[in-house]
Structure formats: structure tokens, C-alpha cells
């Protein structure tokens, strides 16, 4: 599918993983974490990262050892054709479900914040159709687009953080462990799937012009986005007091109401909304392309690009299942993140133990 002269390099991998994970600072994820972490929820990404990082490192170690294999090919090679396809299909189900749940989340944000009179299905349809149009252009185009917009999107984020610093009260981080260390550790570990996108991007391992550049881009992007997320979660904690932090549905967009750039710049939240929307669309372009690729690999469909449109449509249908935004976020999304975390943690270890038992790692 991808030739050796692929234009995808470390910078595209860096931009793609930062878009996929970094956009979560602007959705309802901070609010969901604050339900249990209270004013200490800024520590939860550190806990989640500590829990998931060994599995991520092990998975990418196996990809390096087996060289020219993507995520599905690696799984089938180690676990065997039938078991491997079953496990790979579970990966497809996981990421398709995340596509639907988080797609509904962004749709509800757009509706509540900017288009309150528009029907949710209509906004959902427009959002996914734009993502489909980008996804069908191919992974190289998506990667180049992510890199091209990276600096503009991050510049807007840095500008917002700079303008919001005047509202910060650092005393609000106390008590340092919020409602207690035990619930903080427990919930942080259960939500380790916060970084699940790094597993999905492993599907593109063979699409880059060198696997070394892919690993370099992804791991540097992973480190960058972890620091970015921790910083912004801390920013939210120091701007909103402990009584309100778990009641703010969209803290990123709420902050845009606090800042100003003088009397000549009104409705500044619209400026930040444009860059946030670009980042969300790029994320779903990547999602649509990679889940279609996983499905095609599982069922031996070499030309999988025609699957992108049906998956965009079914993503809309599945995303409309939750009755409202509250159920989607606090029931579907929260519980699903808890459910898939053990699978993502043990999946690489299953591959490693099986490969070790077969003697593949002795070479």
C-alpha cells in the first residue's frame, strides 16, 4: 500500500500523535477526570501515563523486532491467524467505539457553544463528512496536513495559556491530593486508556519512510503531549476553584471567556474555536483512515479506502445512540475507558509472552 519513498517522517508522526491526544485538553476529558480527582486531577495524566507506558514501550519494541509489520500483521504473526484476527478485530471495535463516542462529544460541544439552534445529527453529519473528505486523501496527505497546521494550532494554545495566566491562583491546587490519594491513584490507573491513540497509530508503522523516524516522532510527540496535557490540567485547576472544577463541562472553552486582547478584539473565543476545530478534524481524519485499515487488514481487503465512507456513516449512527451529552460522557465514555484499559495494558504482554514461548525473540 505504501511505497518506500513515502513522504511520512518523524515530524509527521510527531504532529499526528500530538493532534490525536492533545485535542483531549479541549473536550470533556478534564471535566470527567475532575469528577473524582477534584482539584488534583492534573496529576491523573501522570498516573495514567505511568500505568500505560510499559505496555507502549513493549509494543513498539515488538514492532521493532519484527520490522516490516503493522499492528494487525504483528498480532496475526505472533498469535496465529485465527486468534490474531480475533484480537485485531477487538482493536477495531475499541477504536471504532471511541470514534463514535468522542465524535458525539465534539458534536455536542459545537452545538452547545456555537450552534445551539442546529440539530445534533446535522452537525454530526457535517463534522464527519469533512473528516471523511480529508481521510480519503490518504495518510500521507493527513500527515502533511497535521504538520502544516501544527504550529498554528499550538501557537493558539500557547497564546491562550499566556493570556489565562493572569487568572491563575496557585493556592487552588491544595489539598495537593484533592479528595484523597487512593481515589486519585485508582481513577488515574483506570483511565490509562487516555493515551490509547498511541496504540492506534501503531497501525501506520510501515507507512513511514523509515521505522526509526516513526518511533522517534511518536515517542517525542507522546512526551510533548503528556507535558502539554499536564500543564493545561494544572491551569484549569488553578483558574477554577475546587467547588466548581467538576462542574465546568468545557474548561478549555470556558477559559476563552476569561481572556481578552483589548477592546478592539471581541468574541475572542471564536478565534480559538477555529484552531480547536482544525485539530479535532485532523484527529478524526486519522481515526477514520486507520480503523478502516485495521478492518481491511483483518478481513484481507487490500483496497480498504472505500470503507472510509461507510465507517463515517456508521460512526454517526453509533454516536447518536446515547440519549444526551451527559449520558455519553459520564456513562458511555467513562465506563468504556475503564473497560478497555486492562485490554490495552495486557495486549502487548500477551504478544511478548507468546513470542517468547515460540522462541521468536532469541534471534
From TrEMBL:
Give the family this protein belongs to, as stated in its UniProt record.
Belongs to the amino acid-polyamine-organocation (APC) superfamily. Spore germination protein (SGP) (TC 2.A.3.9) family.
One Gene Ontology CC term in the entry: membrane
Membrane topology according to the record: Multi-pass membrane protein
Q: Where in the cell does this protein reside?
A: Membrane
Query: Which InterPro entries would you find in this protein's record?
Result: Spore_GerAB
Q: Which PANTHER family match?
A: SPORE GERMINATION PROTEIN A2
Protein name according to UniProt: Spore germination protein (Amino acid permease)
Q: Which residues cross the membrane?
A: 12-34, 40-63, 83-101, 113-134, 146-165, 220-242, 271-295, 307-327, 339-357
Q: Which GO terms describe its biological process?
A: spore germination
Query: What keywords does the record list, in alphabetical order?
Result: Germination, Membrane, Transmembrane, Transmembrane helix, Transport
